[in-house]
TrEMBL record:
It comes from the Bacteria. InterPro entries: Extensin-like_C. Residues 29-127 are annotated as: Disordered. It holds the Pfam family Extensin-like_C. Residues 91-102 have a biased composition (Basic and acidic residues). It comes from Rhizobium quercicola. Coiled coil: none annotated. This is Extensin family protein. The keyword Signal applies. Keywords: Signal. Residues 1-28 form the signal peptide. Residues 29-47, 103-127 have a biased composition (Low complexity).
Length: 324
């Protein structure tokens, strides 16, 4: 019996040793299949919303994540001073095209080395219309006919070179008249447009001579018409401002007096209340003047015409005539 105990003891202890040894060993699991080498380097993307798998150690135990404060933070690079000082200019998608309808306005900036221009003073307004500052050209056919008619009446005249005194003053085809009718002088000789001279000759023949034969028969025939102004470059009534005078175009003449064969002279003056034949003669020639001229001004019209008759051939709309 005692001999069998040594043989039984190892048999009794062996199961216990095997039990204790099995408790410390991991259970055997299925052997994973081997993956290709290329697949080991690729990481499958984590689906959206899926939880990241926990990191494990080589022995299969989960590894605690490193605290955020334990991860070293990269140093912040200070901003470049040049980048802060000069902002980047935005590049336009397309350069603006100039407006073709608007002409370019030249720059008013002075060139280098030049002084800045001073403000220009306001230009004074003129009361003379621009159209009145142009010398009206004569229509050739009408001018030729006027010369023919004037010669037929017996006037003595000569053609002169074109007059252009600036500011609209001048006559395209002036003539100088010395006798308005045969034996009746125009003193001094007058520079006029042919149209004005022709109307003066017609008025003298058809109105002045008949009135003189009745009112001034004792003084003999009319020998001279004395004029105070024909062509002259000036404004109306010799004013400093206003419209240009018809005298400056050769369209007007001022009659100062009439001289007869015996030397008697009838001067133009206010005669509305003059009951003599001289007064009647002046009123008659003044009234008939409006049959030949577009404008007639006598001593009763204003102070500027106290001593003469103003006649001109200014054309107005509807053949309107101004007679005062």
């Amino acid at each position: 019996m005692c001999r069998r105990l040594p043989l039984l003891f190892p048999l009794m202890v062996l199961p216990a040793v095997l039990v204790l040894a099995g408790a410390g060993l991991p259970q055997a699991g299925p052997v994973p299949e081997s993956k290709p080498a290329a697949a080991e380097t690729q990481t499958a993307p984590t689906p959206v919303g899926a939880k990241e798998p926990e990191a494990t150690s080589t022995d299969g135990q989960p590894v605690e994540p490193t605290a955020a404060e334990d991860v070293p933070k990269p140093e912040t690079k200070p901003p470049s001073p040049a980048a802060d000082a000069v902002p980047a200019k935005p590049v336009p998608d397309k350069p603006a095209e100039p407006d073709a309808a608007k002409p370019e306005t030249p720059s008013e900036a002075p060139a280098p080395g030049e002084a800045a221009p001073a403000d220009k003073p306001a230009e004074p307004k003129t009361t003379t219309p621009a159209a009145e500052l142009v010398i009206t050209p004569e229509e050739p056919a009408a001018y030729a006919q006027c010369l023919t008619d004037l010669k037929a009446l017996g006037a003595t005249f000569s053609e002169k070179p074109r007059i252009d005194d600036g500011k609209g003053c001048g006559i395209d085809k002036p003539i100088s008249v010395t006798e308005i009718l045969p034996g009746i002088k125009l003193a001094p000789e007058a520079t006029l447009r042919c149209e004005a001279a022709l109307e003066l000759a017609r008025w003298t023949k058809e109105a002045v001579l008949p009135a003189a034969r009745v009112a001034m028969s004792e003084d003999g025939a009319l020998k001279s018409i004395n004029q105070a102004s024909s062509y002259i470059c000036r404004l109306r009534n010799n004013a400093s401002t206003g419209k240009i005078s018809e005298h400056a175009r050769g369209n007007a003449i001022d009659i100062a007096s009439f001289t007869f064969k015996n030397g008697e002279t009838i001067a133009i003056q206010p005669r509305d209340e003059d009951g003599t034949l001289s007064g009647a003669f002046q009123r008659a020639v003044t009234a008939t003047g409006c049959l030949y001229f577009e404008t007639v001004l006598d001593p009763g019209s204003d102070e500027a015409h106290e001593n003469h008759l103003h006649f001109d051939v200014l054309q107005r709309r509807g053949n309107y005539r101004y007679c005062r």
